[in-house]
Amino acid sequence: MIYLRSFQFSNLMSSNPNIYPDYVFRHLAGEVLLFDRITVLYGNNGSGKSSLLNIIANKLEITGAEKLISYGDIGYAQRFLDLSSYRLGNDEKENEIRHLPKESRYMKSEDILYEIKKIQQSAVLREGLLFEKRSKGMSKEQAGAYEASYDFKKKLENIRFSQEKYSNGETSMQFFEEHLRPGNLYLLDEPETSLAPANQIKLAEQINELARYFDSQFIIATHSPFVLGTLNAKIYNLDSSPLQTTEWYQLENVQFFYRFFEKYKSFFG
């Protein structure tokens, strides 16, 4: 399923080098991204791939979006959003989709790291569980009663047990297993965070299955060669100008890994 068909960058960019996000995407003014079931935004540090995910999340007003703030003048960020545009996809009957699935969300690497910290730190864990309930509409009084309940204490015990049982990487995998569901649009920022190569591949394979068989769509920012090589994805190289798609094995980061192991291939004979 293609929930989000395209995104077009603002065609009006400030020449001021201090204006965010204009200075990051000046070379992409007016460009259009066309999305597939799985689309990857690749780029080295500073390419703007994470910023772009957050911009799209803000434009779509989905869960996880972080407010854009321009240095000096917040109006520039809002102008960028206002002048950017998107098109939704079509349903099975080729009718244009009017609304994104309500559980669609933007997941940042910080979300995953916070989940790990939440498990590792009791105070943060307690605060995180209560914040989760409050964000879903529970009143302050109800949250207080919930904190004193048996169910709350039992959940704390279960998560503390997970702290002893799971590594950071295993906790990350558990996070994705709990939050990635069929029939949604997901924007994932560097999902490989804390994952060993084997788990990076495992996660990428799960994403392939969700996209192919379970009506999920993914837009992913990554430069992991293991994720890039496993995903059945359209890949945009944000380091290139003009913007273009490319094969995973042509990307600079993948080529770097190739040259490194080629240099030492005699050790693997």
Write up this protein.
Residues 35-241 form the AAA+ ATPase domain. One of its GO terms (molecular function) is ATP binding. The protein is α/β, with parallel strands linked by helices and 269 residues long. It has 11 helices and 9 strands. It folds into 2 domains: 4-108 and 182-268, P-loop containing nucleotide triphosphate hydrolases (Rossmann fold); 111-168, no CATH class. α9 links the parallel β6 (185-189) and β7. α4 (109-120) packs across α8.
Topology:
Blueprint: E1 4-8, H1 22-25, E2 32-34, E3 38-42, H2 49-60, H3 75-83, E4 85-88, E5 105-107, H4 109-120, H5 122-135, H6 140-147, H7 150-165, H8 168-179, E6 185-189, H9 197-213, E7 217-221, H10 225-230, E8 234-237, E9 244-245, H11 252-263
Parallel strand pairs: 3-7, 3-8, 5-6, 6-7
Antiparallel strand pairs: 1-2, 1-4, 8-9
Helix pairs in contact: 4-5, 4-8, 5-6
Protein name: ATPase AAA
Domain AAA+ ATPase: 35-241
Pfam families: AAA_15 (PF13175)
Pairing-aware structural class of the strands and helices?
alpha/beta
Report how far the terminal alpha carbons are from each other: 44 Å
What would you report as the Rg, rounded to the nearest angstrom? 20 Å
User: Would you tell me which CATH topology of the largest domain applies?
Assistant: Rossmann fold
**What count of structural domains?**
2
Give the class-level CATH name of the largest domain.
Answer: Alpha Beta
Overall residue-averaged pLDDT value = 85
| Oligomeric status | single chain
The number of strands is: 9
Element string (H = helix, E = strand):
EHEEHHEEHHHHHEHEHEEH
Extract low-pLDDT stretches.
none
Tell me the CATH architecture of the largest domain: 3-Layer(aba) Sandwich
